[in-house]
Amino acid sequence: MGNFINKFKVYLSNTADYLSSSRTRLSFHAALLYIFALAIIASTIVFDYFSDPEVPMDKHLHFLAGRILTAVIFLGAYLGIIARIFCSRQKSITQILLWIPSLIALAFIVAITVTIIFGATKELADTIGMGSAEWLDFDYTFQGALSMAFPISIIMILTPFFIPGDILMQIPRLAFSDIKSGFDEIDNYLIIKKKNRGTSGFYDVLLVEDDISCATVAMKFCDFFNLKCKHVSSISEADVFLKLNFNHIKLILLDNFIRVGNESGGPTTGSEWLDQIPQTWKNDERPFKVVMITGHPELTYNSGARADLILKKPWKPENLAAFLMNCGLIQQKSGKKT
C-alpha cells in the first residue's frame, strides 16, 4: 500500500511538472490559439456568406474570393506569428499573449493589402485583354476582404482571455508543492517530537509555541544538545505542565503571541503569562531560565525584564547556545555546529 501511494505521489508530481513546464504551456497555447482563430474565421465564411439577391453571381464570387484570400493570408501570417513567438521559448506566456493582439492587427493589414494588390492586378490584367475589367469586381473583392475585420477583431479581443489558462496550468505544480511542503513539515515535526520524548516523563525544556515550523526549529536545537523538550501550543497547557513539572524544567522557550487555550480569563499573550510567574517565584529564585522568542521584541513591554533572554525571530541558534553555556545548562559539542 505504501509503495502504491509513493508511486501515485511521483505520478502526480511528474504530471504537475509536465503541465506547468514552459514547453507544455507554450505548445498548448499555440495550438489553442490557432484552432480558435481557424474556427472563428471558418465559421464566418461558412455561416455569414454574402447573399444579396440583387447582386449578380459574378460579384458574389468576387466578394467570396476577397474573403477567402484575406482569410488564407491572415491564417498564414498568424501561424507565422505564433510559431515565431512561442518558439522563442520565453518563460512569460502572459507577456506573449499581451503582444499577440497588436500582431494580429498587423497581420490583418498585411492580408488586406495583399488582397487589394491581387484584386487590382487581376483587373489590370482584364484591361489588357485577359477578361472584362469592371470597377465593381475590385470593389466587391475589397468589401470581401474588409468583411473579415469582424472575426479577426474577435480574435484580437479574446486572445488576452487565454492568460488565465497559463496560470491554471501552473496551479497543479504550485498546489502539489504546497501540499508536499506541508506534509514534509508535519513529518519533520513528528520525527523530532518523537526524539524529544522525555525519559520517565521528565523533560528539561518547556517549549510554548503554536507554530509548527518554529517549534520544529526549537526542538531540533534541544535535540542537538540532548535536552528533552516538551512542546505545548497554548498558555493553558503550559500553565498546567509547569505546575506539575517545575522541579525538572531547566528552560522555558516562550513565544509571545500564542493561543490562550480553553480557559477563560487567563493571560492572552506569552508576556502576560510571564508576568504571572513572579507570583510563584521571583526572578532570581526561579528554578529555570526563561527565553522569550518573538518577532516583535518591542511588544513585550516590561515583561522583557522578567525574561532572562529575548530572541527575535528568526533567531540564531548560536546566540541561544552561548546563553545556555553561560548558564551551565549545556556544554559545547566539539566538532559540531549548532
Written account of the structure:
With 338 residues, this protein is of the alpha/beta class. It folds into 2 domains: 2-174, no CATH class; 196-326, Response regulator (Rossmann fold, 3-Layer(aba) Sandwich). Helix content is 62%, strand content 7%. It is built from 11 helices and 5 strands, in the order H-H-H-H-H-H-H-E-H-E-H-E-H-E-E-H. It has helices at residues 2-20, 22-47, 57-86, 93-130, 135-146, 149-158, 163-195, 212-224, 235-245, 270-276, 317-326; strands spanning 205-208, 229-232, 251-255, 289-294, 309-312. It has a 5-stranded parallel sheet with strand order 2-1-3-4-5, with helices on both faces. Helix 2 (22-47) packs antiparallel against helix 3 (57-86), helix 3 (57-86) runs antiparallel to helix 4 (93-130) and helix 4 (93-130) packs antiparallel against helix 6. The protein starts with a helix and ends in a 12-residue tail after the last helix.
Question: Key features?
Answer:
338 residues, alpha/beta, Rossmann fold, 2 domains, 7% strand
Helices and strands in order, then pairings?
Elements: H1 2-20, H2 22-47, H3 57-86, H4 93-130, H5 135-146, H6 149-158, H7 163-195, E1 205-208, H8 212-224, E2 229-232, H9 235-245, E3 251-255, H10 270-276, E4 289-294, E5 309-312, H11 317-326
Parallel strand pairs: 1-2, 1-3, 3-4, 4-5
Helix pairs in contact: 1-7, 2-3, 2-6, 3-4, 3-5, 4-5, 4-6, 7-8
